[in-house]
Structures are given as C-alpha cells and as structure tokens.
C-alpha cells in the first residue's frame, strides 16, 4: 500500500496544475526537517504548490513544483523555486542529485556543486571515452 501511495503521488501532484518540475535533492538525514521547512517557505514565497516525496532513510527527496506551463509568470516562479531548492540542498550539506542524474535542468547546478577542477576532469573523461561526442551530445558537455 505504501508503494502504491508513492506511485500515485506524482499523478496527484500533476493534477494540481497540469505541469510539474521534479527535483531530486539529497541532504544528510539529520537535515531533512530543515529541507522540508525550506521548501515550505519557498512554496509560500512563490505562491506555488510544492509537494515533497522522499526516500527519507537515505535523505533523498523529490520536491515537485506544480505550475501552469501556459502562464509565463507562473513558469518563471516555478523555475525560481526550483533554483532556490537546489541552493537550499547545497546549503544544507547535500547534493543536487541523488539517483536520477543531472539532466538539462540541473546543468548549471552541477558546476556550482562540483567546482571547476571536477568539471574539467569530467570533460576529460567524457572526451577519452567519446572523442567524437556522439554519446548524448549537448546534454552536459
């Protein structure tokens, strides 16, 4: 029943406004409460519903911003709230991703978290294994 409820949570959140922007932010378990409280503040600040589903045992959370993609102002506020949640995760000693990878939305956040030396190393590894840039071109590098 718990697994079924978890699976239905995204469906329920999509019904709020029709579009969702899902985060994948991990923080130390001891800071989960601070993250949830921070997401609640961000939600109120931007006037958006942001649901949070989590793998609480490992600190992995999925804040989900609900918004109307046809409303430019709401879309802007959704992106701003997404960025604020990423920043909060880092401030709490966490990471911008815990299981799903960086993807397109978090591209700039990886650089902020990892730093220039790590990013250069990752570029070098990518080039070593994919010198023709045919594997997922333009996604990260």
UniProtKB/TrEMBL annotation:
Signal peptide: none annotated. Residues 2-140 form the FAD-binding oxidoreductase/transferase type 4 C-terminal domain. Keywords: FAD, Flavoprotein, Oxidoreductase. This is FAD-binding oxidoreductase/transferase type 4 C-terminal domain-containing protein. It comes from the Bacteria. The keyword Membrane does not apply. InterPro entries: FAD-bd_oxidored_4_C, FAD-linked_Oxase-like_C, FAD-linked_OxidoTrans_Type4, Vanillyl_alc_oxidase_C-sub2. Its cofactor is FAD. It holds the Pfam family FAD-oxidase_C. It comes from Streptomyces prasinosporus.
């Amino acid at each position: 029943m718990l697994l079924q409820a978890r699976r239905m949570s995204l469906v329920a959140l999509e019904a709020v406004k029709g579009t969702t922007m899902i985060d994948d932010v991990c923080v130390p378990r001891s800071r989960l409460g601070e993250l949830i409280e921070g997401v609640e503040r961000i939600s109120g600040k931007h006037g958006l519903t942001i649901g949070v589903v989590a793998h609480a045992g490992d600190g992995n959370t999925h804040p989900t911003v609900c918004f109307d993609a046809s409303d430019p102002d709401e879309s802007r506020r959704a992106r701003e709230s997404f960025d604020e949640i990423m920043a909060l995760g880092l401030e709490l000693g966490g990471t911008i991703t815990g299981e799903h990878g960086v993807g397109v939305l978090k591209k700039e956040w990886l650089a902020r978290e990892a730093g220039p030396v790590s990013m250069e190393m990752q570029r070098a590894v990518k080039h070593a294994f994919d010198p023709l840039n045919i594997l997922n071109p333009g996604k990260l590098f």
